[in-house]
Amino acid sequence: MPQELLFFFQNATWTDFLLPGLAALTWLLLLLYSLFNYFWLSVYKIPPSGGESLPISVIMVERNEEEFLRKNLPGWLSLGYPAYELLVVDDFSQDDSLITLGGLKLRYPWLKMTGLNQETRYSQKLSRNLALKAITSDQAVFVNPSMEMPDHHWLPAISSSFGRGRQMTVGYTAILPSPGFYHRLYRVESFFQQTESMAWCLNGLPFVANEENIAFKKQGYFDINGFAGYMREEYLNMEIIFNRIIRRRKTSVLPASNLVLRKEFHAGKREWRELLHRSFRLKSTLGFFKRSVLAFFGMLKMALLPLFILCVVLYPVLWIPLLALLTLLGIIMVISILRLQKRLNEPKIFIPSLIYGIIAPYIKVVVRWGFNYRMRNR
C-alpha cells in the first residue's frame, strides 16, 4: 500500500488532485469548526461567581399550566437569592391557573402576578411585553412553569456574569428524559442547537437558539422598541429580540450542569418538526454575515461524506489516508459530545447524538424544503 500511494503521487496530474484536495480542505475546515466550537465549549472554564448580588427578575409566562404551577412554583419562590423577584404572567388561562396562583400568593406574598384578561391574537408577545414593563430589576430572565427548581448557584452565576460587564448571559435548557423515539430526537436536536449557539457566542458571532434561560438587560428590549415590526412572527418570541441586541464581547455562556434549567416536556413528531422550523426561521433573521457563515458550515457538513466516498470510488488507493482523516475527525467529535453531555448532565443521548450528527444535515434539507414550500404558499 505505501508503494501504491507513492506511485499515485509520483504519476498523478494536477487534475488528479482537485477532488482529493477539495475533500481535504472540507475536512480541514470541519476539523477547525469542531475544535473551535464543540471542543472549546466542552473545556471552557466559567469564571467563578462572586461579588455583588445584582437584582434579577425571573419571569414565567403561563397559559393553562395549573399542574406545573402547583408542582414547581413553590421551589422557584424559595431560591434563597437575596435580590430577585418572580413575576408570573397569565396569558388568559382557561383552567384554574389563576386560582392556583392566588393560593400561592397567600403563602408567598413576594410572588408578583399580572396577565391578559382577554383572548388576544398576539398574546405570546403581548405577555412578554407586559412582563418587561411590570418588573423592577434591570436584569431579567425568562423561564417556564414546567421547569424544575434550579440549583442555588444559578442566580449568583448570572449576577456574576453581569458584574463582569456583560449584557446577556446564555444558559442551557435541558428536556427531561421521557419514552419515545421523537422525544429523544427532540432532545438531541435541542442539544445541538443550544451548544452551537453557545459555541458561536464564545467565537464572537453570538446568537441564541431559544428564549429560556437567557438573562439580559431589559433596557435593550425598549431601546429597539420591543416587538415593533415583528408582531406577526409566528415562530419566535424573545429569540428575535435577543438576536437583535446580542453583542460580541458583551455575552457570556454558562455551560455547567448546576446552571442548567430542566424542563418537563414530552415531544412527538410534530414538536420535533416545529423545533426545526423554529431554527430555520431564527437563522433567517440573523445578519447576513452570521447567516452566511452558518450556511457555509452547514454545506460543508453535507459535502464531507459524499466527497470522501467519491474520492474512494475514483481513487481507491487513497482509502486508507481518507479513512484516517475521517477517524480523527470522528474521535474529536466523540470526545467533544461526550464531554459536553457529561458537563450538561444530558443522559441517554450520546449514541443517538453521534448518529444524528451524521444524518441530520440531509434530514434538514428535506424538512427545510417542506418548510419553505409552506411559507411560500400559506
Topology:
Elements lengths: L1 H10 L6 H26 L12 E7 L3 H11 L7 E8 L5 H11 L3 E6 L6 H12 L4 E5 L10 H10 L4 E3 L2 E3 L5 H22 L11 E4 H6 L14 H8 L5 E3 L7 E3 L5 H16 L3 H27 L4 H25 L6 H28 L1
Q: Which overall shape is indicated by the principal axes computed on the Cα atoms?
A: elongated
Element order, helices and strands?
HHEHEHEHEHEEHEHHEEHHHH
Q: Strand order within the widest sheet?
A: 3-2-1-4-7-5-8
Q: What's the total number of strands?
A: 9
Quaternary structure of the protein:
single chain
Number of helices: 13
Structural notes for this entry:
With 378 residues, the chain is of the alpha/beta class. It contains 13 helices and 9 strands. A 7-stranded mixed β-sheet has the order 3-2-1-4-7-5-8, sandwiched between helices. Strand 2, helix 4 and strand 3 form a beta-alpha-beta unit. Helix 3 runs parallel beside helix 4. The longest helix has 28 residues. The protein is elongated and about 85 Å long. The N and C termini lie far apart (58 Å). 33% of the residues are buried. The mean pLDDT is 92.
